[in-house]
């Protein structure tokens, strides 16, 4: 008879093994449910709940006639949920890669990557991946073709792409958005708060198959689109200005060019063109130098265009009359009890009237006017005309220029400043100083924005003309305008600025650039700033040409004045500007 039995040792071993297995299971459950409960609950909650930002549409930028300069188009960001990929979807990876224009190997890698390690509060944690980005800026047509592949795990989220339909036209004024969707320059940056709008968001729960459970949707806030911006620029005039820039570049291959056009009575800029320029759609293809707005950032010695300050101040203070003579044959004069050398003129002038000092652009005559004014009054009027301070345009990166206080002047400044040396100015400062004369003595704040409006066309914010201060009386401005009209007439220094059928007024400027600490005889900046019609100004135009390449000196009357004339003629025809009372203006300064 056989008797089966189990030894006590084997029995105990089996019991201990079974107890150990149950103990380890219960221990693990205790650890997960009690000790590590908070961490695991957080991971589950993060995988179950979703928070999605709903981007707001950025507002448009248009010109004064409603032409689009910057707009936002809807595109899609395509991604995949690798946990929802099916076996048959791998066969469609090649077609998906072709539509998205990305390597197939990259597509397959993201199909297979389902977990990632992240830094949690208690150290590294593994999280499920439910969204792998495959491509950005995908068009709606491409999205439709992707849907035809019937890969349910691949879907698109709408996003916005900034587009500049006019490419480089008015690029420095409009500015651009970089690849990180940050506003970098121009109106885009200045008014970014209003343009970008307010993003919305939604929070919801999803099931194990990543399907949204509507009954558990906690909250949804709709985005608020950004406001649209209407500029003061007129794209037709902007186009005219940029055509003239290209003509100058073609003729003289300069280092830089700036042209500004504005209304003297409002301060509204109708055109602002710079060379070199850039295409904001592909801004990264242009050198950083091309992105700079030279009109407000570049500082140069304005030269003879500054002489209107000394002339206007002397007339305003009743220190001189237009017919009073000044002896420009003198090389040295006594000033405050000591001899002071005067700057040279391009050719001997002898004794000439104060009016001829302006018309013939006498350096010595301007110096004599400055000395009659004295340091304090000359400085006061220079500041009053806007030199040494920002114009208030508001587009950022604007220089205030260089204008030292009288206490810091050396012995020659009183005779050099009146002719536009010993001072640094931006093209816009020179432009607004001339606009002050055209506006009968009132300095306006330059503006490039007319209003902000919503998607219904209703005005939210209006930018009305702003008068900063009265600089000189209307009588003084009118008298000076008569002198500046003769500058553009036969016998003046800006004969080539004359406009057929109109009376123009303005002033040339030619300065030597400082190279290696000394004034260079081969590096010049030629400029012209003026307005028309002289008796009833409608437009102010400034042209600045940096280092024109030609045989001889790049005089403003040669390289800048013709561009003023050509541009003014086109603008007059386009805007229907009528000629002013020419004979009355020409005779005014002779009284």
Automatic annotation (TrEMBL):
It holds the Pfam family PBP_dimer. One of its GO terms (molecular function) is carboxypeptidase activity. GO terms for biological process: cell wall organization. Residues 258-567 form the Penicillin-binding protein transpeptidase domain. It is found in: Membrane. Keywords: Carboxypeptidase, Hydrolase, Membrane, Protease. Gene3D superfamilies: 3.30.450.330, DD-peptidase/beta-lactamase superfamily, Penicillin-binding protein 2a (Domain 2). Residues 54-209 form the Penicillin-binding protein dimerisation domain. One of its GO terms (cellular component) is plasma membrane. PANTHER family: PEPTIDOGLYCAN D,D-TRANSPEPTIDASE (PTHR30627), PEPTIDOGLYCAN D,D-TRANSPEPTIDASE FTSI (PTHR30627:SF1). This is Penicillin-binding protein 2. It comes from Ruficoccus amylovorans.
């Amino acid at each position: 008879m056989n008797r089966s039995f189990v030894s006590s040792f084997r029995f105990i071993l089996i019991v201990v093994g079974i107890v150990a297995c149950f103990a380890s299971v219960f221990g693990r459950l205790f650890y997960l449910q009690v000790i590590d409960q908070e961490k695991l609950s957080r991971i589950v909650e993060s995988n179950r709940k979703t928070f999605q930002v709903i981007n707001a549409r950025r507002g448009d930028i248009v010109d004064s006639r409603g032409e689009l300069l910057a707009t936002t188009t809807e595109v899609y960001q395509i991604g995949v949920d690798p946990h929802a990929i099916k076996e048959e979807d791998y066969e469609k990876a090649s077609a998906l890669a072709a539509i998205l224009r990305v390597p197939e190997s990259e597509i397959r890698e993201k199909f297979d990557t389902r977990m990632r390690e992240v830094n949690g509060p208690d150290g590294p944690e593994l999280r499920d991946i439910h969204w792998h980005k495959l491509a950005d800026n995908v068009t709606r047509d491409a999205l439709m073709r992707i849907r035809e592949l019937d890969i349910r795990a691949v879907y698109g989220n709408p996003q916005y792409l900034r587009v500049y339909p006019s490419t480089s036209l008015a690029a420095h004024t409009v500015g651009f958005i970089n690849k990180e969707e940050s506003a970098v320059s121009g109106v885009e940056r200045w008014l970014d708060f209003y343009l970008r709008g307010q993003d919305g968001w939604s929070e919801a729960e999803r099931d194990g198959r990543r399907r949204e459970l509507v009954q558990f949707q906690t909250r949804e806030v709709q985005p608020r689109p950004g406001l649209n911006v209407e500029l003061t620029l007129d794209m037709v005039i902007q186009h005219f200005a940029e055509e003239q820039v290209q003509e100058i570049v073609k003729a003289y291959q300069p280092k830089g060019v700036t042209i500004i056009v504005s209304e003297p009575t409002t301060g509204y800029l109708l055109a602002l063109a710079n060379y070199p320029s850039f295409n904001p759609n592909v801004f990264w293809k242009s050198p950083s130098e091309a992105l700079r707005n030279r009109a407000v950032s570049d500082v140069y010695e304005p030269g003879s265009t500054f002489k209107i300050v000394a002339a206007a101040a002397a007339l305003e203070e009743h220190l001189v009359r237009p017919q009073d003579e000044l002896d420009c044959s003198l090389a040295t004069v006594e000033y405050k009890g000591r001899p002071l050398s005067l700057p040279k003129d391009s050719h001997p002038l002898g004794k000439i009237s104060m009016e001829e000092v302006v018309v013939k652009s006498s350096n010595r005559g301007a110096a004599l006017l400055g000395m009659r004014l004295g340091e304090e009054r000359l400085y006061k009027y220079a500041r009053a005309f806007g030199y040494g301070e920002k114009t208030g345009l508001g587009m950022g990166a604007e220089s205030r220029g260089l204008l030292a206080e009288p206490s810091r002047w050396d012995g020659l400044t009183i005779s050099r400043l009146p002719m536009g040396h010993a001072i640094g100015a931006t093209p816009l400062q020179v432009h607004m100083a001339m606009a002050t004369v055209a506006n009968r003595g009132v300095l306006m704040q330059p503006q490039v924005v007319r209003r902000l409006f919503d998607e219904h066309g209703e005005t939210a914010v209006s930018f009305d003309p702003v008068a900063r201060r009265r600089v000189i009386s209307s009588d003084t401005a009118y008298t000076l305008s008569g002198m500046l009209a003769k500058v553009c007439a036969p016998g003046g220094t800006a004969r080539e600025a004359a406009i057929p059928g109109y009376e123009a007024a303005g002033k040339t400027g030619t300065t030597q650039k400082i190279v290696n600490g000394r004034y260079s005889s081969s590096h010049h900046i030629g400029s012209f700033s003026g307005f028309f019609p002289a008796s009833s100004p409608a437009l102010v135009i400034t042209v600045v040409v940096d280092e024109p390449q030609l045989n001889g000196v790049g005089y403003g009357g040669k390289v800048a004045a013709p561009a003023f004339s050509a541009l003014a003629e086109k603008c007059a025809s386009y805007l229907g500007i009528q000629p002013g009372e020419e004979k009355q203006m020409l005779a005014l300064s002779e009284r």
